[in-house]
Design brief:
The chain has 714 residues and is mainly alpha-helical. The protein has 23 helices and twelve strands. One of its GO terms (molecular function) is antiporter activity.
Amino acid sequence: MKRGEPRKYDPTFKGPIEKRGCTDIVCCILFIICVLAYIAVGILAWSQGDPRKAIYPTDSRGQFCGQAGTPLEKKPLVFYFNILKCASPMVLLEFQCPTTQMCVEKCPEKYMTLLTAYNIPKDFEYYKNFCQEGVTNSMGVANILKNGLCPAVLIPSKSFTKRCFPSLGLKNGKVTVGGQEQVNDGEGNTIPAEDLLYGVKNATVVIEARQVVMKIFEDYTQSWYWILIGLAIAMVVSLLFIVLLRFLAAIMVWIVVALVIVVIGYGIFHCYMEYASLKGEPGANVTIQELGFQTDFAVYLQLRQTWLAFMIILAIVEVIIILLLIFLRKRILIAIALIKEASRAIGYVMCSLFYPLFTFLLLALVIAYWAVTAVFLSTSNQPIYKVFNESACEYSRQTCNPANYSDSPEKKACPDSQCLFAFYGGETPYHKYLIVLQFYNVFLFFWCANFVIALGQMTLAGAFASYYWAFSKPGDIPTFPVFSSLGRSLRYHTGTLAFGSLILSIVQLIRVLLEYLDHKLKGAQNKFAKFLLCCLKCCFWCLEKIIKFLNRNAYIMVAIYGKNFCTAAKDAFFLLLRNLLRVAVLDKVTDFLLFLGKLLVVGLVGVFAFFFFSGRVKAFENTAPNLHYYWVPILTVVIGSYLIASGFFSVYSMCVDTLFLCFCEDLERNDGSPARPYYMSASLGEVLWKDKSGDADSSLQHPSSWSQPEEDQA
């Protein structure tokens, strides 16, 4: 009784039960309410958000530079009145230079001061392009500077990520601007041009991430069609592999094993050759730690330590795979027979191979909705203005209103202060709870994504269970097993799918919160807190894996018997517990072989993508696009190939798991006699007869003595 009550013979049982009722109705209602609330959050975010804040740079008033349909449409660049103010440490805290910023058509091209330009009409007209509106020739230099209407000095600049930065050069080993080693700082002082480097450096810290993102975006625009070709190749290879597995299971499995070992072996050889070729090269012996983080990842490929690390990792993986193959060689032969049976099942239910496309489509919709909502939520803040000053001021860094700042108490108390745009935020209840809405967006993303995956698992489980429990194959198999199973899952078990995916989503959200806390506590010196956080992350990672395993088997039992989630999970757990050794050594070995198949597809496509995009092969030099980071399309193709291969191989994996549970149920229900014949095929019976690891089959006779299903007798 500790392992549950085994199934008893039931002459009326013919596979997935047709007459069933709705399960877990409360969770179904809760899921529908939460989805409707999720839609409401999306509508609210779309009404409040403005993605332009993430695309266009802004001036000191929070206006978008270069936005079409606005007065600033022809002024796409941001100009800093005094770039030296960007050297302030406050820039790194508030992500805003404490100087006036304005939108300009193009950056300054020559060096001049306001004092010299004011006396030359032609120069002053040019100078006014970098001044605020309303500046006239009769205002006087002192009044213009006092009111902050113009910069004190113009420095030759170049556009960099839509911002004007001083055009710095080198002359006799010294930094120059416009050919000059000394420049005016705008306050009547002469400073070395080298001092501008600090302002440029801090200003670029704020936008460095955007620069990397823009380069990656440009790489995608240059290589998107090649990426699609790579993904199409991955799809064709995966489909071809599945088809060949249908007819040549044993041969394909051993080919996969051999090719995986060869591909990893070549990777080790390639890493060694790169490691050896860098010997004696200048800077090749610099360590990764000494180099620090670089946005151009190609720099790391010039280090010997990088290739040594790759070589060690691949060598460890190679040794582990070889040792597993040696110790599990007998189990692999049994697992091959199980894969053959899965191939026969898929042969009768061919439309199951295309079901992952439906899952991909639903997941794409969920991901797109989450991403768009996240962008609109993150850009739904209001512009916040703060007081920026040069001298001591009690109102420094406090919020202000730019509309009437000239007559405000802050301006009177601090005459040299300015009310400048600082960042996007807000004080309304909506803005205060934005972080809550973001977490809700993440939570519903997990829930909906897990629901879609669970729907696919239950649908495929129902289809393959219909195959297994059909005594006369294919005569007793339903006409459209996948569509019939999908209909049953949605009609009767939406609540069960929601229940299982809810439990998994809660664990995943806790893992996200732990990662968030870990990020926040990175600077903390409390080692016990770090240790505790690390333990929690490890425990919840394990818990997520366990829940995924239990959910998967629970969905199989629901697809067959139509019970609620808790009952199905309990039945599946005890059934697996009664066949514990067989689960450990047979089912998992099959998963390992299928994983090697995915590795092979990803490895072949990844190697092809590497040689194509990196230009290592002369035949592709003129065809491959010119990229900032060639690892961007390679990584995209590799990840996409893995997802595609996982989609196709997930059908096999789900088929194996379903057949395995049905197989265990069949053993408990029947005994192979004419009165109680097994539903399993003779080939699957051979698997069981060879596998003596489980106690359920201790009295099992050779399959030749069984009463066989009609197809096997034929």
